[in-house]
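User: Please predict the structure of the protein below. I'd like the answer in structure-token form so I can feed it into my own downstream comparison script.

Assistant: Understood. Taking the following sequence of 423 residues as input:
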Amino acid sequence: MNSQYNFQYFQGSSLSDLFAQDITDASYGFILNYPATASWAVYPNLEKYFIQDGSSEATKTSFDKICQKEPWKILAVLGDRIPGIAINPPPKSLLAYWQEHFDFSYSNRLMMDRLTYLDDLSHSERFDKLITLFPFDRLKPEKHAIDSDTHYHLLSKVTLAELGVQCPKYESYNLHEVNLEDIQLPQFPYLIKTSHGLSGEGTYIIRSLSDLTYCLEEINKYLDIKLLDRIIVSEFIKNQVQNYCVQFYVNKAGEITLIGTTSQLVTPEGNYLGGLIDYRNTDMSKFFEMIAAIGQYAHKHGYFGVIGFDVLEDQDGQLYAIDANFRVNGSTPLCLQRHTLLGLGKEVAKYSSDYRMEGTLDSILVILKPELDRKDLIVLSALEKVKYGKIYTEIYAIVTGETIQEMQHIEQKLQDKGLQWLP
């Protein structure tokens, strides 16, 4: 059916090798963190490129997630061709582990002062263009590698119907033109989504009146703090049997390179827990038409880079795109381990950002050294915390195996050693 497409898998293992073909025309850097709107943000996105990262100060996405754990995860697999720009350095022991296991030097990383970094980058002579996960209000528009207005449009949930792929039926509403209480809502269940929710924030599955009441309270909070313009009301896909994240790279010429497809682990509420991948037995060809359409749309709008789109498959085999992320995705580092792990005979792997273990990172790297040396476990990010006087470490990691049964056995052994999975 899809013999017309000759898409090939990426043969490398770093993001900078993916981007290499497109960064020869200027000096590029990669800003590894998202913008934020919390009170701790020195450069909050409050003017134009709204991001829904929490409707109140108490629920805002935390500093450690946005500025430490998430950027370090990308830095781990960035490679050495693009400078990775962060405002918090990774722990020295984590960096040493990466250098040994990923075989990159990380000499190109750039740590900047969080109080001045966007001003410094806006006036930098070193960087002509900056790759971002999301446009920054306070970074000069001409410094964005992707036109900032275009990138914001591509990242909007409202854009889904323009991509040329099958998606759930939905209506979008500009809340400056329509009163929330005047919107005609469908029968339960359905979804309401804010236009630019971060990591599942702003997505509400409405199964009951209490769900709707909570959702409307949240949306009104966003309206009160002037961080929301548009929402969508979407049908709920019933009888779903799989939830995928399909990832590829589109270059400046519009050519497509496959990165991988994960089965997404999500809670019943729709919160993302991680991804599961079978490197050998995942057939991406059933997504080729969707990949081609989304890649063509992205290219037409001047986008180059990683794209990950979420797909629900129902029991009749119908595929529905439910989200499209024109950026490096949460499970992109998992997909990039394909060739390394297949070379070791490991065909199955699981990524999660919800591992935790008592003790310092240094002590954990010693305790888990046999598993780390065999690449049964790959650590992408780690941050020490203290609670009730006890030190523990939050870990983003990949557990691997030759089969899913072996991977589960390895995960059980790691659990016996103290590594907890806390979804």
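That's the full token string. The radius of gyration is 21 Å.
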